[in-house]
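In the current project phase, the collection of sequences with tokenised folds has grown. A representative record is quoted in full directly below:
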Amino acid sequence: MAPRRTFALAALAAAALLSANALAHAAGRSVPGNPTRGKALYVRAGIFCGSCHTLKAARSTGRDGPNLDKSKPSYARIFEAVAKGSKPTRRWPTGMPAYSGRYRAYGQITKGQIQDVAAFVYTATHK
């Protein structure tokens, strides 16, 4: 009887682990970066994303850039936009400043910090 009980407990533990991983993936936690640190960067002076973007999770109501709650950008799109910025368009005449390497326009943040910001925005918009 002990082997059956051991097998049942192992199966239950495996099922719980798979469920936890599925929930984490559904919440967007499988993306690189730390959403908690990303939120702090999102609202930080110097790269204050909320001055342009609306994002309910950050209590930001900017009007100069896309509403992130509505556009729900992919993780890759967020990462690229933060790193390289974007060119001005008719709708967004200021464009988006770059925050990485040779693209940087307004101060530089590390690749890890860009991943954190992207993780925060992605998890906030893909619940």
About this structure: The beta strands are 54-55, 60-61.
